[in-house]
Amino acid sequence: MCGILFELSQADNFTASSVSGDLVKDVERRGPDSLESVEFVVGSVRLKFTSSVLSLRGTAVVPQPLFSKPGGVGKQDDAPEYVLCWNGEAWRFDGQEFGPDENDTRLIFAQLSSCNGKVQDVLQKIEGPFAFVFYDGPSKRIWFGRDWLGRRSLLRRKSVDGDRNVAICSIADPQTISQWEEIEADGFYYIDLQTDPDTGTWHLQKVAFVTDPELSTAEPPSMKLPIPQLCQHIPPASSPALSPQSPPVSRLYDLLYDSLRLRVQNVPLHSIPLVPGHEGKSRPSKVGILFSGGVDCTMLARIVHDILPAEEPIELLNVAFENRRVLEAAAAEAKKVKKSKKVSTQARNGEELESSALEDVSAPSFIDSVYDICPDRQTGRKSWNELQSVCPTRDWRFKEIDVPYEQVVEHKPAVIALLHPHDTEMDLSIGLAFYFASRPLEADSPKILLSGLGADELFGGYARHGTAFSRAGYPGLIDELELDLTRLGKRNLGRDDRIIANWGREARFPFLDERLLQEVISWPVNDKCGFGAVRSDEEWSTLDNEKQVLRLLAWKLGMKGVAGEKKRAIQFGARTAKMEAARGGKIKGTQKISVAPG
């Protein structure tokens, strides 16, 4: 994970930077291993590239921005010919995997520096998440953008009152937060510095992603999306349900194994935290998993077990919140119980008796723990126990992250700022959960965090998928799945990247691997979920229709309890939704956040 900040201003303007010092500090938080800048003048404009680096590839830290001088040599004040700010993980380039000691940033920079201006051709060959800013000196163009799915964040400051300055960053400047917008993951953009805007702002050019059928009519230049359209096949009525032995179940294991292998197998030694004085004690984990105990994250944990050496520990990060609304509701219920018991006692004894066991029910002691009642804590422990039973040789480190209400209040403004431009109550609830789940508990906490994001969208895991099938059959279900896939980057990925990277940690999404997506999207809908299928009398036939292929994989791998876990959104499982008791249940997830940052 890295942080990107690019600034374009007028060369004759010698005032301070157009962005705040707070923004530079926030960029540095994303990449604590290195922070450097390159600044120079091209014609009438001044360009400044700043990058921070969280080093997770190769044998050593590679500082950014990467740049080269004309002919490879030149005076110190010569303008670079090429400059790259890169925030990504290129798992493959032109179909070939990187070696365990290779650094993807260096290779991508070498390819971009020798492509003769055909930047989009290089970027199309990358498999993996990324955001970037690249200066191509010979063409005097500034290229920038995100991968086709939008798995890494990149924002742009909007022009105000004819301001000709440009700023592009991984996150919004807290001092001018309302001026920042997310760069769409619909293509790669560039600014042509040879087209000087005498009036107004710089005009952005775009090389767009288009689907295969659109290629013949699309305006050039354009690029083909790397995945096919969602399979539109309508299964015949009364199709047999999937079973643990069905080919899609075993194929899904292979696809997830390959995706996870790329993401966890070759973590460089220099990226593993080593705390002085901890030698000979517990071995630090290379990988952590954002762990609710649901089928998505638990399957990631189970398959990672098959990949990593037996001596490697795996951290399961489970977050739970003190929710005042839930707590007060539980206290009110306890008071009702107390009152009914008092009445019963009076009826027996003719006088009022106080039971010491029922005193002060408003205090947290009336339940085991305010965190133990969180659904994700309960399912997390159950799934952790099942992992230990099925894979007893692994050191499974279940990390209980308890978040008091006071900490939520303290950190809420920072979370709202990181969320921008996302600004709904649902965004805040989800953002709070990821913010505290990814916050390092110890100095040697793993820098790589795996997320199960994408499984619900791919395999029909939401309740509305069942609703769509009930209303409109398979065509309605397919339409709903297609809608989910098209808006995944816009609704989730940039937001989650900004939240998690704030702690100098990197989220990796195995379900969103290009090759896994390409294949699963081509499957008919009844190979992914069980709606409308004819069930057998087998024990596994009672599993939910949602994400049935994934549930059957859990069953096949010996995790029957996990296979039967119900879908629960993180904001409800961790209890970040509707936290303030005074607001009750009146608030909706689609409402705008009521408290502005700062």
TrEMBL record:
Coiled coil: none annotated. One of its GO terms (molecular function) is asparagine synthase (glutamine-hydrolyzing) activity. The keyword Phosphoprotein does not apply. InterPro entries: Asn_synthase, Asn_synthetase_domain, GATase_2_dom, Ntn_hydrolases_N, Rossmann-like_a/b/a_fold. One of its GO terms (biological process) is asparagine biosynthetic process. It comes from the Eukaryota. Pfam families: Asn_synthase. Keywords: Amino-acid biosynthesis, Asparagine biosynthesis, Glutamine amidotransferase. Residues 2-194 form the Glutamine amidotransferase type-2 domain. This is Glutamine amidotransferase type-2 domain-containing protein. It comes from Orbilia javanica.
